Each structure stands twice: as C-alpha cells, then as structure tokens.
Amino acid sequence: MEHEFKIGDKVRIKAGITNPAYGWGNVGYDHIGSVIDTNLSFIFVDFPTCNSWRGLEKELELVTQVGKRFKKPISTLSLHSTVPNVFTNHKSDTAS
C-alpha cells in the first residue's frame, strides 16, 4: 500500500479531527511529530508527548514549516472571558 507520508516526515493531527481512531494518547492539535513507521492502514508517529502514537493517514497532515509557531484554537471559555457581560445590572438613567 502506497502512503502519502514517509518515514521522517513532520506531521500533526488535522484540526477537524475530534476522535482519532486509536485515541489522543496525550497528543494535541499543536503537537508536531515525526513519522516512524507506515504499517498497512495506519501510521506510527513520535510526538514530544507520546512515542509511537498510532493513527490513520486521513487524520494527519504534513507540516512543512516546523520552525513556525502554531496557535492553539480559541476555546469557548477564553472567548467568553474576553467578551463584556451585557446583562449586568446597571443603574437606570431614569429618575426614581
């Protein structure tokens, strides 16, 4: 079977993947690893936080600029913490 990736390629998990077929194994979207083996229908990758991570080829993408810093996706919590609360109770402008 011909694989898109070869041993030594730098890869990461695609942003749209929510449940990798063999689990996350302490690997995140911002982690970049090296392909160490291509075995039939899956790929083995050494990530800094997980050696010999196993995943499907369709779950990975090639990283061409390893020296570039990648930003993490904005979480819902961090987004809400920066938006002012428009429902806070303010004093009314009308006289009582």
What is this entry, summarized?
It contains 1 helix and 5 strands, in the order E-E-E-E-E-H.
Structural class, from helix and strand content? Answer: mainly beta
Query: Ends: how far apart?
Result: 79 Å
Rg value: 21 Å
**Which sheet architecture does the biggest sheet show?**
5 strands, antiparallel
| Separate helix tally | 1
Describe this entry's structure for a reader.
By secondary structure, this protein is mainly beta. The protein has one domain. It has 1 helix and 5 strands. The chain has one helix at residues 76-82; strands at residues 10-13, 33-39, 42-47, 50-56, 60-62. A hairpin with a 2-residue loop joins strand 3 and strand 4. The termini are far apart. Residues 70-92 have low confidence and may be disordered.
Q: What labels describe this entry?
A:
96 residues; mainly beta; globular; single chain; 5-stranded antiparallel β-sheet
What order do the helices and strands come in, and which of them pair?
Layout: E1 10-13, E2 33-39, E3 42-47, E4 50-56, E5 60-62, H1 76-82
